[in-house]
Specification:
Length: 305
């Protein structure tokens, strides 16, 4: 049985609904899988299981080596930007002085021309063909005034190589503070604190990539479905239920009996779980539009929701 002619008709000046659907026109949505979600025990920089984990006051967890290298690189970049900013300030000051000197020279030149007039220039070179019998050089006999020089310099004739405008690059004053690579808030090395997770040893020896961790209070296996709380004073990690029930009330760490306050309880950031009820954005969207008259689908990524 032959197919419908309306779906095979491709000589129209516009795309039909069936052609757009075949090309994937519109917003494409795809639910993120487990491979696209960062586990709670992974570094936010290298995305590998963390080694000697350290947390910032906002709960972002990094490997010790990764975060220290990041902060040192930021400090070097700040020093480089500060040097470039100081150099630009020096150049701007020199340009301002040159402008003032040129302005004084123009004022003196204008005063001299107003009082003495334009003096013709003579030349003893007999080989100059433009020189007439009185010694004048035609248009070149009168010195170019400062006003003409200024007009030539400011003329917006982009087709002339001498009048091609140049875009000046301004270097703003850099911030002197290092920032967290995950949350973009101010972060110092001394504000980082190490965290310690209780490893599950009941299932025998496991590889370094298959480690599982427990809450030291309720012995529940820690996963992305649980909200974790770290004590900044000692670094031990508990589930949020135990932290709210015991730590917030007793003001004592259940693992080492060290005193803690309410501000010492830091909620750790984590990835999603793949379930719709989770508070993370788990749907990636791409907007595909059609090229003008080409029939090819051009993909333009849109913001994640």
């Amino acid at each position: 049985m032959p197919q419908r002619h309306s779906k095979n008709n491709n000589d129209l000046a516009f795309f039909t609904y069936d052609e757009k659907r075949k090309l994937g026109y519109g917003t494409q949505r795809e639910r993120l899988g487990k491979d696209s979600i960062k586990p709670f025990d992974a570094c936010s920089l290298c995305l590998k299981p963390f080694i000697s984990p350290m947390s910032c006051p906002k709960g972002h967890v990094f490997c010790k080596e990764c975060i220290l290298e990041c902060l040192l690189a930021q400090k070097k970049d700040i020093i480089r930007k500060q040097a470039a900013h100081e150099l630009q300030k020096k150049q701007d000051k020199e340009e301002e002085q040159d402008k003032l000197a040129a302005q004084r020279a123009r004022e003196l030149d204008a005063f001299d021309q107003q009082n003495h007039g334009a003096v013709p220039q003579y030349s003893n070179d007999s080989r100059n063909r433009n020189q007439d019998k009185n010694g004048f050089h035609g248009a070149n006999s009168v010195k170019t005034t400062s006003f003409e020089e200024e007009a030539l310099r400011t003329m917006k004739a982009f087709w002339l190589p001498s009048a091609t405008p140049e875009a000046t690059v301004k270097v703003d004053a850099p911030s002197s503070h290092t920032t967290c690579p995950e949350g973009n808030e101010k972060l110092k090395m001394k504000s980082l604190f190490p965290i310690y997770l209780t490893e599950d040893t009941s299932e025998g020896d496991r590889g370094s990539l298959d480690k599982s961790y427990l809450c030291p209070s309720c012995k529940v296996t820690l996963t992305n479905t649980l909200t974790l709380v770290a004590v900044s004073s000692c670094g031990h990690v508990f589930c949020k239920k135990c932290a709210d029930k015991f730590l917030a009330v007793d003001k004592v760490c259940l693992e080492c009996s060290k005193g803690c306050k309410g501000r010492d309880l830091v909620q750790l950031e984590k990835g999603g779980t793949g379930f719709a009820g989770h508070d993370e954005g788990l749907v990636a969207t791409d907007f595909k539009h059609l090229g003008s008259g080409s029939g090819l689908g051009l993909v333009r990524p849109s913001s994640k929701v």
